[in-house]
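Hey L., structure's done. Input below.
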Amino acid sequence: MSSLLAGKIAVVTGASAGIGRAIALSFAAEGATVALADITTEPLEGGEPTLDLITRAGGKGIFETVDVSKWEDLDRLVTKTVALYGRLDVMVNNAAIYSGTPLLDTTIEQWEHVMAVNMTGMFLGCKRAVQQMISQEPREEVRGRLINLGSQQGIVTSPRDTPYGVSKAGAIYLTRQIAVDYAKDLIVCNSISPGKVVTGKPGLPMDPALMENARRRTPWPRLGRPQDIANAAVFLASDRATFMTGSNLVVDGGWLAA
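Output:
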């Protein structure tokens, strides 16, 4: 194990699959204690539960069943984490869903469901984390770090998924607002906006037309992997990320530069 995050206590939502799973595993490998949150322990792409992999490798963590759209679930998660480990150093708001629908095909129920998880869930995660962090003594000039998952589709457009794109644009805005409002309290807030990342999850993300478009648009000679995003999250969670808040770190293989 490395020690870039040694002694840090982190929460990762959506930690059972995809990018959240990669972030949680990487945090643990770097020495962090990780509280995993998701609605199920089963990875959508198959394989062993994330916590099993962490503990078998000698890492430490817990799993809590959490619906991020509910304040009581996030409050329970953070309260339990702090009761067990004494503080909260890093909060990763990663949990997200999509509808796979353009504007005219999106029902009000689909819109509200995506916004409940992606936007309200992030708002609640940030709020509960800041409540805790603001009460803590700082370490290395920082009381706590928030990492929100945006998307390149919150910067440009989201093909065939209006609710998802809007929610990810909101994630980037929310990050900036929190960073400015709580900098004086030594709370850091940054976001990561992935490009096309192949997670192995079934459904719209693996649609052949979208995959071909992503390959054509991405200058780097491969698409993204969950580990690419996890590497960025480890940096933002670490004490090496200094004098950096309110930033949106784009990890997209050059898509937006092309």
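The chain has one domain: 9-257. The two ends are 37 Å apart (CA to CA).

-- N.
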